[in-house]
Design the sequence.
């Protein structure tokens, strides 16, 4: 590998911490496809966004819209084959797409960490939780065992596990769902990563626990100056927590902008439809579902992916090459009729 | 009792005493493991302590007293025919060899087979294909025929017997562990481990191995019995340990002509093999009990 390509060892923290608000991760034209027997599934089809240091960036979309695949593609977690990822994910001056697995291992966990939907299955059932938290430190730092266990204890306290001295030697099955998610967060944050990808972190939890976990994530984010990507199908969760957000549909971002603008003045019919189908948010008495079903991502035709379900569809949409159009300050929409959008959400 | 007569709360609860014994039961390790373990320990200790338990050299020939019956003067288990060697001494010293075969041959095959299985199952693809085709080649021949062929090439000796068993025995473990690994690597905590940037080696050793090793351990106990019997069979065929070194299989082989006149000569080493075999089997059953995943 050419030495000039390596801006710095991703394990070395770059000399100055990134300024809050500067671009920490730059994603350009990320494409991930899967080869299957029925054809090539374009699960992520040309995603671009910038992640600003210290912010919470939301990705919302229905099942199969490509949210999770996007997250996993960012840190090269998808098995290749059948997955093929192309594009640019610029972090610390280097493209993470196409890094060797050894180099990627240095980035994962230490710089970019991830937590998942179901805390029940993402912990090793045969290892004590304290050891699982300390293991991340063993993999990425030169700390001794005593130091690591002390750090694990501290982390358990930070994520709000009561009585960590007693619980550090417990096994995962002795923890409740909410507590397990806290353990997973402690593991993911052990090496103080800059970026945390949270893939539906609260979906499997009770509503009350959801709230606690989200609150915890935001607190830790502030404390560590961390950047969070929050993936969810729950607009409420995103609205509550995110500074900026992107709406995904059919493997593409259809609308992107700061959360308040996007949710009050959406400029894409899909976002509108999502908001109308939320209880309490729409003007009418009844919820208005979006008719139809999401398109198949196997060899999708040209034109707008939302065409079949769109109230504003016209012939031009069928042939339009679809791109994100600027519709306001830091506000992008993938709709040629964005100026005909009328939606007031007070 | 008629359903109408079923008052609320009338279904009996377990008494406190019952609850206590139930809880206590779980604390006792499984009985087969205890019995098998104790039996094997006693036999192994007796074999190791042979010089103190018997004053006879296993090769010493009491020429005046060949084929003495058990409990005869000076020889607790009698002597063999036609040489007059002390049976107790030969069984104890022979046990060292046989237990060594059981443990020594099996431990190496467990380690090699488990390693191959983990690598094949975890990495998959071409590596898996190549390793499993090699395993298939070994499986295409009867186990005993391969072992015999290798020993025939190398010449009969204890080391060559080990080499032959090592060369052939690992394939079963490779298959078992590969299958288990394929299941475990799909588990989400493995994905979580990859997310944390753990190396393949760390994931395999710390996260997959503990989940799959029980299958290999349970099988290894049955395999240890098999290897002891194989050692005995090779001894019987004259391909094992060369005489006059005592070994249970060759003792049976040499003694079988005296089955009618001096029954103890072939029977006693046979009983010894059975006892060791049973203890290994019990340990295997017990391990299976303990290691069985519980909810």
Sequence:
């Amino acid at each position: 590998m050419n030495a000039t390509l390596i801006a710095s060892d991703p394990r070395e923290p770059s000399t100055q911490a990134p300024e809050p608000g500067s671009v920490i991760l730059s994603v350009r034209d990320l494409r991930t496809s899967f080869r299957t027997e029925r054809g090539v599934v374009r699960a992520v089809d040309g995603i671009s966004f910038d992640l600003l240091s210290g912010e919470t960036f939301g990705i919302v979309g229905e099942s199969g819209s490509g949210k999770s695949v996007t997250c996993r593609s960012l840190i090269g977690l998808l098995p290749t084959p059948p997955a093929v990822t192309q594009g640019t994910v610029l972090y610390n001056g280097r493209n993470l797409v196409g890094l060797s697995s050894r180099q990627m291992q240095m980035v994962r966990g230490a710089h970019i960490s991830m937590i998942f939907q179901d805390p029940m299955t993402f912990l090793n059932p045969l290892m004590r939780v304290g050891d699982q938290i300390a293991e991340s430190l063993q993999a990425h730092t030169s700390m001794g065992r005593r130091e690591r266990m002390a750090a694990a204890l501290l982390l358990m306290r930070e994520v709000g596990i009561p009585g960590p001295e007693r619980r550090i030697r417990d096994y995962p099955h002795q923890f409740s769902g909410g507590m397990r998610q806290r353990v997973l967060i402690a593991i993911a944050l052990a090496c103080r990563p800059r970026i945390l990808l949270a893939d539906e972190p609260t979906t499997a939890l009770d509503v009350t626990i959801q709230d606690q976990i989200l609150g915890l994530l935001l607190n830790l984010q502030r404390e560590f100056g961390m950047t969070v990507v929050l993936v969810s199908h729950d607009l409420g969760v995103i609205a509550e927590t995110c500074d900026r957000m992107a709406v995904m549909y059919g493997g593409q971002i259809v609308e992107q902008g700061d959360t308040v603008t996007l949710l009050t003045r959406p400029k894409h019919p899909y976002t509108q439809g999502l908001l109308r189908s939320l209880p309490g948010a729409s003007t009418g008495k009844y919820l208005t579902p979006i008719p139809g079903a999401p398109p198949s991502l196997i060899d999708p035709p040209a034109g707008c992916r939302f065409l079949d379900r769109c109230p504003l569809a016209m012939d031009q949409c069928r042939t339009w090459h679809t791109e994100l159009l600027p519709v306001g300050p830091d506000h992008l929409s993938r709709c040629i009729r964005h100026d005909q959008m009328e939606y007031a959400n007070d | 009792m008629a359903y109408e007569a079923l008052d609320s709360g009338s279904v009996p609860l377990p008494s406190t005493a019952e609850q206590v014994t139930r809880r206590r039961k779980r604390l006792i390790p499984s009985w087969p493991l205890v019995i098998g373990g104790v039996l094997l320990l006693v036999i192994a200790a007796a074999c190791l302590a042979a010089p103190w338990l018997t004053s006879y050299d296993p090769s010493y020939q009491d020429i005046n007293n060949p084929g003495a019956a058990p409990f005869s003067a000076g020889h607790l288990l009698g002597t063999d025919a036609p040489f007059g060697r002390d049976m107790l001494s030969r069984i104890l010293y022979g046990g060292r060899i046989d237990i060594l075969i059981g443990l020594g041959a099996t431990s190496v095959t467990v380690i090699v087979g488990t390693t191959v299985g983990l690598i094949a199952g975890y990495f998959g693809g071409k590596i898996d294909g190549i390793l499993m085709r090699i395993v298939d080649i070994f499986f295409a021949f009867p186990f005993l025929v391969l072992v015999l062929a290798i020993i025939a090439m190398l010449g009969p000796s204890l080391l060559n017997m080990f080499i032959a068993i090592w060369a052939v025995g690992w394939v079963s473990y490779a298959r078992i562990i590969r299958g288990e690994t394929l299941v475990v690597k799909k588990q989400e905590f493995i994905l979580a481990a990859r997310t944390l940037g753990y190396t393949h080696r760390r994931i395999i050793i710390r996260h997959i191995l503990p989940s799959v090793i029980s299958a290999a351990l349970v099988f290894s106990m049955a395999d240890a019995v098999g290897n002891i019997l194989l050692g005995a069979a090779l001894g019987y065929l004259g391909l094992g340990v060369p005489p006059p070194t005592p070994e249970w299989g060759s003792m049976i082989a040499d003694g079988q002509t005296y089955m009618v006149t001096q029954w103890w000569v072939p029977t006693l080493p046979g009983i010894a093999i059975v006892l060791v075999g049973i203890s290994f089997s019990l340990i295997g059953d017990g391990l299976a009990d303990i290691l069985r995943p519980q909810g």
In short: The first helix of chain B runs from residue 16 to 27. Chain B has a mean pLDDT of 82.
